[in-house]
Amino acid sequence: MTLTETPPEHEHKQHVAVDRAIRAAGVLISILAAVVTAVAELYLTPLRIGGVPIGVAVLFAAAANWSICWFALTTTERRWALAPPWVVWTVFMLVATGVRTTEGDYLLGGDDWIALVMILVGSLTFAAYTYQAILRPAVVRSGSRPAELRDQPPADR
Q: Which residues, in sequence order, are bridge partners of residue 100?
């Protein structure tokens, strides 16, 4: 080894530190995205065309929450990373149902069917993605699945 080469253990420590930073950033960004999309869904809930509610908030909740799940799982490579944005989104929606504006109106009323369906579909989207992630077999770093590794004889040492 020459003096300019980095020792392997130092490279490994750097790799682990970068990996942890990316995972932490992935969780934080997914939580921030959950808050931003929840606010957008609050604004989209009362949207009407010609006095008829169009329910675009329901579709937006499904698409946005599915994207947040995909991002959290892709950046962290951990299934537990789906829980923080799910909890933040759900708590945000539950708080929005109980908060009154200065005029005395609720942000999301119990008589607004679009708001209720949006909360249901949004939470079920997180649940469905999590269920799908649980059923998907884990992939180890080498690209092989654990069952494939068990079936192969050990490599020569």
A: 106
- Spatial CA neighbour of 47 closest among 130, 115, 122, 148: 115
The pLDDT value recorded for residue 127 is: 97
Which pLDDT score, from 0 to 100, does residue 157 have?
44
Looking at residue 16, its amino acid is V
Please provide residue 134's backbone torsions phi and psi, each rounded to the nearest 5 degrees: -70, -40
CA 31 – CA 19 distance, rounded (Å): 19
Cβ(122)–Cβ(62) below 8 Å: yes
Between the alpha carbon of residue 83 and those of residues 12, 22, 75, 80, the distances in Å are: 29, 17, 14, 6
Whether the CB-CB separation of 10 and 52 falls below 8 Å is answered with: no
Residues of the chain with pLDDT under 50: 157
Distance CA 65, CA 124 (A): 9
Angle, vertex CA 50, rays to CA 49 and CA 52, nearest 5: 65
pTM for the structure as a whole: 0.78
H or E, element range at 70: helix 56-76
What is the predicted pLDDT for the residue at 114? Answer: 93
Write out the two tokens for 140.
């180890």
Residue 142: per-residue pLDDT: 56
Q: How many residues does the chain have?
A: 157
